[in-house]
Every structure is written in C-alpha cells, then in structure tokens.
Structure of Delta-aminolevulinic acid dehydratase:
Amino acid sequence: MSHQPAPFPAARFRRARQSEAIRSLVRENALCPSDLIWPIFVRDGEGIEEPVPSMPGVVRRSVDLVAQAAREAFAMGIPAICLFPYTDPALKTADCAEAWNPENLSNRATRAIKAAVPDMAVMTDVALDPYNSDGHDGFVENGEIVNDRTVEALVKQGLSQADAGADIIGPSDMMDGRIGALRQALEGAGHSNVMLLSYAAKYASAFYGPFRDAVGASGALKGDKKTYQMDPANGDEALRLVARDLGEGADMVMVKPGMPYLDICRRVKTEFGAPTFAYQVSGEYAMIQAAAQNGWIDGERAMLESLMCFKRAGCDGVLTYFAPEAARALGA
Ligand SMILES: NCC(=O)CCC(=O)O
C-alpha cells in the first residue's frame, strides 16, 4: 500500500474505533454462518451420540442422528456438512473395498441427509484411510504408498459418493493426478454438477491427532504420511499444487491445517482468486477448547476471532468443528 496517512492529529486511527457502531461501519470482513462447512463423524447403530474425548463437544453420531443434526445446522444457516466415517475395524482391509461400497456409512449418511434436508450441500471425503488396515490414504505395497493404483480406487470411491447424492467431493488423499481422474470419471458418469473441493495444500501436520482418534485411525496407521502430504516448511509448492488441481478441474481448493497456514491461504487467494477454503483441524479445535475449559482463554471469543481471521486471510469459507457453536454465537 503506497498511500500515506495524514500526520497526527489530522489522522487519529482511534476515531474509527470509538464505538461498536463506528467499528462495525469500517469493518473490512464479516463472518456469517454461510461461511461454514461442518465436519461431522458418523458411526454405526441407531440413536447413538458418542463423545470424542480428545475433541470436547464433538460426538460420533449414528446415521439417524446425523440427519437430525444436519436439519438443525441448516436451520442455523450452515449451508454444508462434511462426512467422516468411523469404520468398524473389521471392515478395514488391505484392498479398502468398503470405500466404494454403496452401503457404507458415508453413503448411507449422504442419502439420509439429502432425504431430510435436500437443500443442504453434502461434502464427502475421498481417501482410503478410514477403510485401510494400514491406516494410509493410499494402498501400501512393500512399505510404499503407491500412487496410480490408489487413484483408480479413489475414482471408484468418488463415483460411489456421487451416486449416493454427494454435492461436493473432497479428495484429501494427496495422490498426484486424482483431480483429473475424478473429474473425467464424474463427467463420464453423468455427474457433471458434482463439485470437487481439492485438499490441494494439505500438510503432514501434528494437528490431526484428535481426528485420528475420532475416526479410529490412530491405532491402524503405520509410519507417517510425509511421502504424500506436504512439508510444513514449503509455501511455493502449495501454489504449484493449487495451479495443478485447478487445471485438472477442481472447482474449489483447500488449505489444511488452517491457523498456522494463513500465509498460504492469502497467497492462494491472491494468486488464483478461486473459491478458497481452510480446514480448522481437530488439533486447532482441541487447543481452543482445552484452554477454554481450563479458564485460560475466553472460548467463544477465541473461536470467533480464529474464524474471522480466515476471512481476513482471504478464505471464502472454513471447515470447522465449531460450526454450530459459531452459528449460535453469531445469532443464528
Ligand atoms: N481428511 C480429513 C482430515 O484429515 C481432518 C483432520 C483434522 O481435523 O484433524
């Protein structure tokens, strides 16, 4: 910015901060429930809500209660929900076949939500980790996570999700070439309106720990995900990945985790101007909740501040476990 402010006292910046009325007039960004995508955990059974200990306030819900939660969230102005299945360990195999079972938890939950709240957008997760006995997002051969055979499986998984009624498919696997393969397959199967929200810049992060508890993947994972998820030291690479995924047919892109990566969000938005989302991941959620529960921070203020900062960094929206709480705090 080359513009120089007038010298003091002509310029007194505190004039614009003197009251809530004035502050609201000059506020540069706004946070609303329509900015939020709510990730939820689905489990088997009926009438079950089971707390996730490492994510205070978050539960795993059976499909019937997922539909009810979706109805309530949509009534609060939250436009989209994102499904993550807690898969029975007995269904986790090396061939990951449960991932494209039309009757798997994610597909059943999608159909239940679309039946209960047809106007709510349902987003699903494309990656093999919830179904893989090795806990990885791709197939493991001789200790290596193989790319191209995994992409073929991801396409089957994505198509089964689109067939179940998903509006937005979110490939979170970080294999190379999956966006183009999915886009081509969706077009070929008559799903040309199904959107791809690419987890384009997904980092190999320590902040995913509580999520792995929530989906029951902590025990299964052998090794780490550093050969496919990004090195937290890299920024330019994120731009190359976003360019690649937009070029292959992604409609929207994501940066993940969120709070430690706001510089990446800003660079992506400024460079491409595409719909840009951040994922405020489980570890970020858990840190705020744990500090609030200890009385160390004001939980509601910290939540709203963290979400507003995503907007300021250029994000069009945020995936956050706080979605319903934030919508309530925003007066929905
Ligand atoms: N594919 C989805 C995730 O890995 C979520 C991570 C988190 O919330 O920690």
Q: What stands out?
A: Residues 125, 127, 172, 208, 211, 281-283 surround 5-azanyl-4-oxidanylidene-pentanoic acid (CB under 6 Å). Residues 31-329 form a domain with the TIM Barrel fold (CATH 3.20.20.70). The first strand starts at residue 36 and ends at 43.
